[in-house]
Amino acid sequence: MRKIDVFTHIFPAQYVERMQQVAPGLKDAGKRVRGVPMLVDLDVRFRVMDTFEGYQQILSIATPPIEAYASPADASDLAKRANDGMADLVRRYPDRFPGFIASLPMNHPEAALAELHRSIRTLGARGIQIFTNVCGKPIVSPEFLPLFEAMAGHDLPIFLHPYRGAGTADYSTEDRSHYEIWWTFGWPYETSVAMARIVFEGLFDRFPTLKIITHHMGAMAPYFEGRLGPGWDQLGARTSDEDLSLVLKRLKRRPIDYFRMFYGDTALFGAYDATVCGLKFFGVDHVVFASDAPFDPEKGPMYIRETIGIIDRLPITEGERERIYWGNAAQLLKLPVDSAHQAA
Amino acid sequence: MRKIDVFTHIFPAQYVERMQQVAPGLKDAGKRVRGVPMLVDLDVRFRVMDTFEGYQQILSIATPPIEAYASPADASDLAKRANDGMADLVRRYPDRFPGFIASLPMNHPEAALAELHRSIRTLGARGIQIFTNVCGKPIVSPEFLPLFEAMAGHDLPIFLHPYRGAGTADYSTEDRSHYEIWWTFGWPYETSVAMARIVFEGLFDRFPTLKIITHHMGAMAPYFEGRLGPGWDQLGARTSDEDLSLVLKRLKRRPIDYFRMFYGDTALFGAYDATVCGLKFFGVDHVVFASDAPFDPEKGPMYIRETIGIIDRLPITEGERERIYWGNAAQLLKLPVDSAHQAA
User: Which of residues 274-313 of A touch B (CB under 8 A)?
Assistant: First the structure.
């Protein structure tokens, strides 16, 4: 069966070279470039990919977000290099890479909007990747709203990737050194906060065609369904200094109903029961296959293999499995049907 | 079938009176006292309890934590009033309340330790309630370790309740006004951070009889099993400034194995699929029934009813259901078997 892995990360050569010039002190990224060959080495990537039947990847840049380490001018240049590099890979290896999702220089919102349109119209990007905050600013700050509007206009998805430091809650050095809690729990928390802001700012009401794919199966939303549902139905009950119940009146639906409008990917690193829980929350039409390769203990194959193992044994019909593996992605990303047939 | 609801909150009269004297500006708590009659009114509580067959409650104080609003001296007095008040209710209504868990003045660690022993030895407390941080300090700070040691010595459980502001990550006013995200996602995040600190500080190795019941079914641990497992097996791969892989060598087990040593309660506010996911993570022996009453949209009965509805349809044996409803709790809290027979 065809399998489109929609969230898998890469550093194209012309991007990583410039990244290391712009930010030679970016030690963590450097450690990953050295430690995870599949990030930069195409031969390694192809060998891993070849072990899985019908397996294709949608490419996106690995963290850190460009705006987290580069000036606005450098970020604009880096985003172009990232997108040109990924577009080139898609052109050269269409059977392996049916598409890519663009990176944007988010610390330069005008340039980000221009690069969004260029990536989609000229390079054929099938979506954009944004992070859960922009240098600590909430993703729903006014300067970023044109990006949501533009993606709703293109009717192509936004991929929401976690990154530390959402809104006001920053991770200090101390927290960071505390056993990478910032990664294990902080990232899903940040994703959840970004989702909440998108919901409560009414972006789904404002842009009805908006489609957002949340990395790691909706972060905290599915497991904390009870907090989103009856919990948030009581919005305001826990606050005295302002009447937050007005927020509920402003929205057209219950908060939880908006959370189900997001899409979730299956990148849960081998967690079967969580995958079942997430699938029940979003429904088969709102779940897409992704592995987050190559960031696993084997540096590439493990999360792909484990995630396929999970999807293969989900108690669903073959038609539903097909939608999760590639049907939903092909529709969301508007991938050519020919390519689907070739790989199937 | 007997049902022991192990996490349900109350404000005994002598406690709430003094709380409002000590902190008249405690508006949120005041709003709840006024808005949720079951917190303070025994008749209301009994009417709700009477609608559920075989239903009993273990009592604990509602948030805020005492140390969050009272000076060390006031906190010591308030904890005594809370515990005396709950012990009195247990004495007067043993069939309704088979036990209570003590509150401690955590901003006065010596007094907290003394109150811990007094509550258990003199008042018959069946555990203690601590919050996920103490005025922003991590719960594993050295001054709190005697409490863990003492509870391991008594072989009685610590109930871990979320509260905002763990360790270094504080919630600012801005975040707080952001739609109560601090409650919906912040609380489970804080619980998860506290669990991680308990794990990585090696408390389960140091105190082998330590038993900790996490409110809300292990917070983020079950859904993010993949991050705890293969994710944290790579501890250090994301950090350059120190070698965090040494932490793994210091521990006797994989990080995820320690997370399964916690207990989870079923207070997930009506989320069936999450309950299944949490139960799979912890196993039947490490899950206990709790509703978090009375904080639901109906101010008491709803979460009890919904949680019972979920446990009743879990795909487990009747014997397993019995363990979740009361068997595990009776064993953990060392409740008299007679009382079990009376109510069964």
Answer: 274, 276-278, 280-281, 296-297, 302-303, 306
